[in-house]
Amino acid sequence: MAHRSALLGTTPLHRARNALRELVQRQNPHSFFVAGACGLLSIALICNLLFRHTDNSVWLNLALIAFAWSCSAAALICGKQFPQWAGLTLVGLFLGLTIFFIGPTNNAESAIASGQELPLIALYLGWFLRPVVGRILMTVVVVIVAVVVASNPVFHAGGELGVTTAVQMFIVMSFCFEVGSLLWRESRRKVQTDLLTGALNRDGFLERLDRELVSVARSGAPMCLVVLDFDYFKRLNDTQGHAAGDAALADTVRYLKGQLRANDVVGRTGGDEFAIMLGRSDATATQQVMKRVREGSPFAWSWGIAQARVTDNAESLFERADNQLYRQKRRRDALA
């Protein structure tokens, strides 16, 4: 039986399946999108070549088909290593081609066929770029395309396509960009969220903290960092099991979020270690808040507080909060 399984594993079909599985596992959304978009472009170009019978653009179409296939293959081969600059370069090239074909010297068929590529460009800008950068580039694209469309008589009132077609094209572009922005936010949320508790993970919390420190340095508004550490968490795991420990961590995060303000940020920075960021709260007010929250907590934990200074970075702020936490734990142990 083992010998037969080994033989089956060497069949061409089995090897092809393994190769395909490995290829898929090497991909991420960026490489998949680029490969798929280039593949769709090549299909559109092939249809254009077969059915439009425009002799003057045969060689251009053939060159573009070869280029699209090459880019699609490169994205799949590189997989997760496919660089964003390469994707942006392709977006710029496709945008240039689209503008060329919807320009005033081309007919309605060319214009509408090329205009169908604009939603893919908008989706890329929304999905794979930071919101501010993506929105700026999207605005530039819309302005450029609007100027080109306005110069083409087929989009004028009474033209073959008319104003309505142009308006619909921009509506679809905007919709695809917003969908892409939603996908970007969702992917960031998943990357930055601790799966067990639903709090931010360490990287996500540090990113938020860095942004808040910039705001503090600019405005001077008070902000406090609280580090929180369970008391005797190992004892809980040893006596009641790891499932009980995991439940305690998740329940504590739900409890903290229910007791704090909606704009306060909770993060899990280690096994049983958490951090809380309280905006517009000084050390005195934060200490009162934490005493109140701690009294109602179903689990025992200690905390340390550090109020942000203009010169602080995340490391210095955490260091001061950790020092206060350790002092509190030493006092607790001394009284035990």
Description:
The chain has 336 residues and is of the alpha+beta class. It folds into two domains: 9-192, no CATH class; 202-335, 2-Layer Sandwich (Alpha-Beta Plaits). The protein is 69% helix and 8% strand. It is built from 14 helices and four strands. The protein has helices at residues 2-8, 12-25, 29-51, 58-78, 84-101, 108-115, 118-128, 131-151, 162-192, 202-219, 233-240, 242-259, 283-295, 314-335, and strands at 223-230, 265-268, 273-279, 301-307. Strands 2-3-1-4 form a four-stranded antiparallel sheet, with helices on both faces. A hairpin with a 4-residue loop joins strand 2 and strand 3 (273-279). Helix 3 (29-51) runs antiparallel to helix 4 (58-78), helix 5 packs antiparallel against helix 7 (118-128) and helix 7 runs antiparallel to helix 8. The longest helix is centred in the middle third of the chain and has 31 residues, at 162-192.
Rg, Cα atoms, Å: 28 Å
Shape: elongated
Count of helical stretches: 14
Q: How many structural domains in the coordinates? A: 2
Strand proportion, as a percent range, falls in 5-15%
The side-by-side strand order for the widest beta sheet comes to 2-3-1-4
Q: State mean pLDDT (0 to 100 scale).
A: 89
- Count of extended strands: 4
The succession of helices and strands, N to C, reads HHHHHHHHHHEHHEEHEH
- Poorly predicted runs are 1-8
List its traits:
single chain; 4-stranded antiparallel beta sheet; alpha+beta; Alpha-Beta Plaits; elongated; 336 residues
